[in-house]
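General statements about sequence and structure are easier to judge against a single worked case. Part of our work consisted of pairing the sequence of a single chain with a tokenised description of its backbone. The amino acid sequence and the backbone structure tokens for this protein are reproduced below.

***
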Amino acid sequence: MTDTRADEAERGITIKSTGISLYYEMSDESLKNYKGERQGNEYLINLIDSPGHVDFSSEVTAALRITDGALVVGTVLKGCFLELQVDGEEAYQTFQRVIENANVIMATYEDPLLGDVQVYPEKGTVAFSAGLHGWAFTLTNFAKMYASKFGVDESKMMERLWGENFFDPATKKWD
């Protein structure tokens, strides 16, 4: 959708930054856990698709100068990167490091007017997805499902789904 140039389409990569505007309306259900101040539930998101390769870093720098925030998306076009072929614990540790590193970077540009801009999986502000397979989720999706199944509070389940927490199906207890 944003790779509009012939050379981008041919190579399957973004070379020049491209902007599009997206309208999004959040449901009251999606916003129920949000505690901050907000004005309505309708959002206009101006998305800038910028190159991810280091050779095009000047394009990324130019795009970042006009943004209020960033959405980082890592993609795989063909096959699977070796570092993504890991077991569950290694994947968790890798995701945790990426999130911590992103939060460290965001903290260096902290602005009190923006409030807390860091991301937290246990608060539902990190999404995991596979574009190739057409799925995406936040921990909120699983918290709802399991909270209903086990008859526990959804916010407690959110806290347990990220971090050093383990569920023992034999005892039906969390460690």
The chain has two domains: 1-71, 78-175. Residues 1-71 form one domain. The two ends are 45 Å apart (CA to CA).
